[in-house]
Request: fold
Amino acid sequence: MSDAPSLEVRNLVKHFPIHSGLLQRRTGAVKAVDGVSFAIRRGETLGLVGESGCGKSTVGKTVLKLIEPTSGQILLDGEDVTHLSPGRMWHHRRRIQTVFQDPYSSMNPRLKVGTIVGEPLENFGIASGRDKDERVAKLLERVGMRPDAMNRFTHEFSGGQRQRLGIAKALAVNPDVIVADEPVSALDVSVQAQVLNLLIDLQDEYKLAYLFISHDLAVMRHISHRIAVMYLGRIVELTDKRTLFSMPMHPYTEALLSAAPVPDPSKKKARRIIVQGDVPSPAKPPPGCHFHTRCPYALPKCKVEVPPLIEVAQGHHVACLRRPVGASPEPLTPTA
Reply:
């Protein structure tokens, strides 16, 4: 077995061109993803968190090759798949699967569950006929569904059950990596816990690598091993979840955590950080550090220098000019 990460992304960039005028000439670009790098090893979950519009879902779609990257590299088990044609990419698709946010709209309502879950098995030549039906029945049981669900349509199930069907479909081809894009955001809290625990159990059993995309910090804390925080197309902090929640070092991460509700406010007096202003447009991001327009700790150089994502402590990567290598995790002092 290769020692390479199951999924590795190097300096991934995705810009969407903006066309305007009578001749529809290109006048700019939406910089949805602007130089993202990370690696996920077998049996590990990397959480990708950030506000709506920060580019985290675009990262997921680009990694899946649903949209082509502008530049950068995507490697599956050490093999570069960035520029493969659709025909050559087909052989790698069984290695990376996805669980969508809305399982109802991602499944054909005119097909029965047995056909939907079994379709990948036929597409990749893994099983057909009776063998396929037996495999589908076992998959359904593994995700907590009755085998007779094969003969029913998706509209006959609840949201949590449909998400279990989506997970079964992703597992059908025995992938190495699963990209889960907001897979529990549309579910009730109790059902969220059931689906998250199922994903954790499946990861332990099959040693899956997860890229888990969400805006919910509580969900991230429950399922992730490491968490990457995105802001306006860039990763600003990357570390293990315990360190992130106990010693955040990027001002944006601090603001995100301080905005999250505390179960018992009387027991924990969290320092509130109020971020001023709105998120800038990704079509015209600020120069230098993208967060400097809203950061209470910004220095003059933050307006012109792009902070690299560096390892300031063991396993703790931060993109902030006020956090050099070996910096103390103590709170920063606001600038005048």
